Amino acid sequence: MTRTEEFEDLRPLLFSIAYRILGSVTEAEDAVQETWLRWEASGTRPASSKAFLSAVVTRISIDVLRSARVRREEYVGPWFPEPLLSDPYQDPERSAELADSLSVAALVLLERLSPLERAVFVLREVFGFGFPEIASAVGRSEAACRQLAVRARRHMDEGRPRFEADRRERQELAGRFFDAFREGDVDALRELLAADVHLVGDSGGKAPLVGPHVFGPDKVARLLAAAAPQFTAVGVALHVQEINGQPGALLRDRDGRIAATWVLDILDGQIQAIRSVVNPDKLAHMGPVADAWELKREAGEFRKRPQ
């Protein structure tokens, strides 16, 4: 196998590591590309290409994350990761860890960790790397990495989100939710929402939100039911789509451009949270992005018409 073939074979793993450390598709892709450039420039043939390349992409991702921390601290409103439609890396032996770590809630929780804690947690808990490999990747001793892993695991366990384990049940409930939304059925929506449900959006201050942060089944149901006819009037269609391994949807305008993503947190047969990303910068990697401000203007005109 050539060096190029080795790299391409490992590319899905490298992207998946970088994405979980960075929470950004575009930054993860850049990290993988930089890893390729360093691999191409390296004259040595490591004993394990997987260990070598994983270490390189981890170090690059840590550096990128450190530089991004200030930007994220200054971010306008809630910060969510860039939506990921499908994870290119699959490992049947670690499918549960991979799926759990991909959820929006888990990635938001990872933001609480330091860059080193986050990298160690991802390598150890998600991908099952040994501590000798992790130590090499992050430039710390094995003992230090074990301590980082313990701290990271404790922080994650304290706030770890729980989701409905049965995939079929989640999809069925999500289908009922999206049907109720399309119909603008307040009662049907309310029945599916948990008592402490919240709807929250990430716009980065660059797009309007359906609701910046709304709590409670009654308020969320009424807001969504009121938004449904406006979406229809301005040509926004909802396409059910798994996002970050969770039930969700893509919202597209009449020209097929992406206006937003929705992700549902589901537990105990109810929707616990609805998380929306409308920041155009976080949608661009999926294709052309709609003009959300123009859609809002059109929706405003629709509301003014006699009903």
TrEMBL record:
<feature type="domain" description="RNA polymerase sigma factor 70 region 4 type 2">
    <location>
        <begin position="107"/>
        <end position="156"/>
    </location>
</feature>
<dbReference type="InterPro" id="IPR014303">
    <property type="entry name" value="RNA_pol_sigma-70_ECF"/>
</dbReference>
<dbReference type="InterPro" id="IPR007627">
    <property type="entry name" value="RNA_pol_sigma70_r2"/>
</dbReference>
<dbReference type="InterPro" id="IPR037401">
    <property type="entry name" value="SnoaL-like"/>
</dbReference>
<keyword id="KW-0804">Transcription</keyword>
<keyword id="KW-0731">Sigma factor</keyword>
<dbReference type="InterPro" id="IPR013249">
    <property type="entry name" value="RNA_pol_sigma70_r4_t2"/>
</dbReference>
<dbReference type="InterPro" id="IPR013325">
    <property type="entry name" value="RNA_pol_sigma_r2"/>
</dbReference>
<comment type="subunit">
    <text>Interacts transiently with the RNA polymerase catalytic core formed by RpoA, RpoB, RpoC and RpoZ (2 alpha, 1 beta, 1 beta' and 1 omega subunit) to form the RNA polymerase holoenzyme that can initiate transcription.</text>
</comment>
<dbReference type="InterPro" id="IPR014284">
    <property type="entry name" value="RNA_pol_sigma-70_dom"/>
</dbReference>
<dbReference type="Pfam" id="PF08281">
    <property type="entry name" value="Sigma70_r4_2"/>
</dbReference>
<dbReference type="InterPro" id="IPR013324">
    <property type="entry name" value="RNA_pol_sigma_r3/r4-like"/>
</dbReference>
<dbReference type="Pfam" id="PF04542">
    <property type="entry name" value="Sigma70_r2"/>
</dbReference>
<feature type="domain" description="SnoaL-like">
    <location>
        <begin position="176"/>
        <end position="249"/>
    </location>
</feature>
<dbReference type="InterPro" id="IPR052704">
    <property type="entry name" value="ECF_Sigma-70_Domain"/>
</dbReference>
<dbReference type="InterPro" id="IPR036388">
    <property type="entry name" value="WH-like_DNA-bd_sf"/>
</dbReference>
<comment type="similarity">
    <text>Belongs to the sigma-70 factor family. ECF subfamily.</text>
</comment>
<dbReference type="Pfam" id="PF12680">
    <property type="entry name" value="SnoaL_2"/>
</dbReference>
<protein>
    <submittedName>
        <fullName>RNA polymerase sigma-70 factor</fullName>
    </submittedName>
</protein>
<dbReference type="InterPro" id="IPR032710">
    <property type="entry name" value="NTF2-like_dom_sf"/>
</dbReference>
<keyword id="KW-0805">Transcription regulation</keyword>
<feature type="domain" description="RNA polymerase sigma-70 region 2">
    <location>
        <begin position="7"/>
        <end position="69"/>
    </location>
</feature>
